[in-house]
């Protein structure tokens, strides 16, 4: 009995003491928080230090209130967003890393191009084959090479929060060259504020042959001496990017995971903008601007801050120009984070817990391809946001061809991955993918139930919502009447892009019913489009060209009359007509004459999708 009472008493004392400490904590924290809010003195023990104030971006604050895609309770800059997601005592005080000094006389300093003397050209070509970049040039450049500060002027003045979370850098590689891999590592060490850099995790996805020599024990011995903890993990067999990244992520000890490619160079101030966005809202996935390191000369070339990520019907990731709509949202401020519909996928930061909450990666995907779009759609549709921090620049060696082998064949793997992505996330718009790429229909997608369950569990929005709210400029039209081939009544032939590029004439040939180059969409905006090109005519007699869709009507507006079956070019009033005898593969534009050569059928396998609106529209 006595024991029992004593125990209860002890418990009470412990509870009370804890309570007192808790209250003290809260008081201290709230005082401290006021400091963060900017009411306190600045953190100025060094003239060059970034000031201890959060990045309060008035523009985005106003924006957030009127914008329906944000959940206000989780958003808002500064403290509210922060205290809900990161406890201040887990964050770190930091200072910008010192500028990497130029080593005079070394090739490639300040990001300059390296030119190989003619007598070494044979050797250069020999070495080029190993990695599909100029390895000889790379080997001549210091691992610590200096770079110029490529940021916009406004970025250099930006103030970031005084306290930021730590990050682990995860770098996956397969058969990587020594100098590019280690230059990536050194650029991270040299240009990241040290308190924020928890560790670097290198994941060797089963490098083979000559690569195994330097990427084995030699690498482990080398990284053991580096001034930052660097771990080398290895997959047992070739696992591909996705599974190797998951292995790396599993060992992450920092609060944020930053994925980098293995042939990158981080520039001055690259990390702070990424971490700052996440500390404001942990459901933000942030990419740097990916600059170009020339595969020929290793010159550092700044990329545009006016491009964002999109995708085409084939589900290839593509860079497109940022539309005016997004520039307006940012009030014309090019240093403000850019909301991008998709990301390239190689380089980004994400909160570690959020990475798992949102479903990490689709483990049913193989080797490479599609995972970046999958994550992009998932983040947007399931309540997160995807941004490019235009003040963060990381260079990447872009290659003209891949040096990697794809067990099972590149096409098969990419089709498999993209088909999974289409099945899980694209809803009815998956038809655009299957129609333009009919080969994907026969590739087994495997079991996707775990991913569809995830979509259900996270209560993700529809792809229509994504197209309406995040990517109205998409090449996949939001509203379309028809998707399929366009057949001439008289000749029985079909319109065909012949695989031609923007600026070329559209063609016509026998109907093969396989989709591909014969698939067109007729959209609510009166476009006749194939992937990112639209039928376009600039005179009443043609020619009819494929031109990159601009969405502004004009020369790209066509009116299909279901009853007459004519396709009338709105600007000129001319009718799309079957080819003349002069060129049997070239449809033309002529004055309308009601003959069968001007009648077209859009009804093969596909349904009219928005018939009601179709009539309203006219
Ligand atoms: C890079 O610079 C650091 C000092 O900033 C030095 O310790 C290190 O040895 C250098 N690394 C190489 C490979 O030159
Ligand atoms: Mn790469």
UniProtKB/TrEMBL annotation:
Protein name per UniProt: Polypeptide N-acetylgalactosaminyltransferase
Pathway(s) it belongs to: Protein modification; protein glycosylation
Domain of life, source organism: Eukaryota
InterPro entries reported for this sequence: GalNAc-T, Glyco_trans_2-like, Nucleotide-diphossugar_trans, Ricin_B-like_lectins, Ricin_B_lectin
Signal peptide boundaries: none
Bilayer topology annotation: Single-pass type II membrane protein
Family the entry assigns: Belongs to the glycosyltransferase 2 family. GalNAc-T subfamily.
Native organism: Phyllotreta striolata
Residue intervals passing through the bilayer: 12-32
Cofactor(s) the protein needs: Mn(2+)
């Amino acid at each position: 009995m006595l024991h029992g009472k004593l125990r209860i008493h002890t418990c009470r004392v412990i509870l009370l003491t804890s309570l007192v400490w808790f209250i003290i904590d809260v008081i201290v924290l709230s005082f401290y928080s006021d400091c963060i809010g900017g009411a306190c003195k600045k953190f100025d023990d060094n003239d060059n230090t970034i000031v201890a104030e959060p990045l309060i971006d008035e523009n985005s604050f106003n924006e957030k209130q009127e914008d329906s895609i944000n959940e206000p309770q989780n958003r808002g800059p500064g403290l509210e967003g922060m205290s809900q997601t990161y406890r201040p005592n887990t964050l770190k005080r930091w200072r910008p890393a010192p500028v990497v000094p130029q080593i005079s006389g070394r090739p490639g300093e300040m990001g300059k191009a390296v030119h190989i003397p003619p007598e070494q050209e044979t050797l250069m070509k020999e070495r080029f084959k190993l990695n599909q970049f100029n390895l000889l040039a790379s080997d001549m450049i210091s691992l610590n090479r200096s770079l110029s500060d490529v940021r916009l002027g406004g970025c250099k003045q930006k103030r970031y929060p005084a306290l930021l979370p730590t990050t682990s850098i995860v770098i996956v590689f397969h058969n990587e060259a020594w100098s590019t891999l280690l230059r990536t590592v050194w650029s991270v060490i040299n240009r990241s504020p040290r308190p924020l850099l928890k560790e670097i995790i290198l994941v060797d996805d089963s490098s083979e042959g000559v690569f195994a020599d330097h990427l084995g024990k030699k690498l482990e011995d080398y990284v053991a001496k580096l001034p930052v903890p660097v771990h080398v993990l290895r997959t047992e067999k070739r696992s591909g990017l996705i599974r190797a990244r998951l292995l790396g992520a599993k060992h992450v000890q920092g609060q944020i995971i930053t994925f980098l490619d293995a042939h990158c160079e981080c520039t001055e101030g690259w990390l702070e903008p990424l971490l700052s966005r996440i500390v404001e809202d942990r459901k933000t996935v942030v990419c740097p601007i990916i600059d170009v390191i020339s595969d020929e000369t290793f010159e550092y070339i700044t990329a545009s801050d006016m491009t964002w990520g999109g995708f085409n019907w084939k589900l290839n990731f593509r860079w497109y120009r940022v539309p005016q709509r997004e520039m307006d949202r940012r009030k014309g401020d090019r240093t403000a984070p850019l909301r991008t519909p998709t990301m390239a996928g190689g380089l980004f930061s994400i909160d570690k817990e959020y990475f798992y909450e949102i479903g990490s990666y689709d483990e049913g995907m193989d080797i490479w391809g599609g995972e970046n779009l999958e994550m992009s759609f998932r983040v947007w549709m399931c309540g997160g946001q995807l941004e490019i921090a235009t003040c963060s620049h990381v260079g990447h060696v872009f290659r003209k061809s891949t040096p990697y082998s794809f067990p099972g064949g590149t096409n098969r793997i990419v089709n498999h991955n993209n088909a999974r992505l289409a099945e899980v996330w694209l809803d009815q718009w998956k038809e655009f993918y299957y129609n333009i790429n009919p080969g994907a229909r026969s590739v087994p997608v495997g079991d996707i139930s775990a991913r569809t369950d995830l979509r259900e569990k996270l209560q993700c929005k529809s792809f229509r919502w994504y197209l309406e709210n995040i990517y109205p400029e998409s090449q996949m039209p939001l509203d379309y009447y028809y998707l399929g081939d366009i057949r001439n009544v008289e000749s029985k032939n079909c319109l065909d892009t012949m695989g031609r590029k923007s600026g070329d004439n559209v063609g016509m040939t026998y109907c093969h019913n396989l989709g591909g180059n014969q698939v067109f969409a007729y959209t609510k905006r009166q476009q006749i489009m194939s992937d990112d090109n639209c039928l376009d005519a600039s005179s009443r007699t043609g020619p009819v060209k494929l031109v990159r869709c601009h969405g502004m009507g004009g020369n790209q507006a066509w009116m299909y009359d279901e009853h007459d079956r004519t396709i009338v070019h709105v600007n000129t009033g001319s009718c799309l007509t079957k080819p003349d005898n002069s060129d049997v593969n070239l449809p033309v534009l002529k004055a309308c004459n009601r003959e069968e050569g001007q009648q077209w059928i859009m009804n093969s396998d596909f349904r009219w999708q928005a018939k009601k609106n179709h009539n309203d529209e006219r």
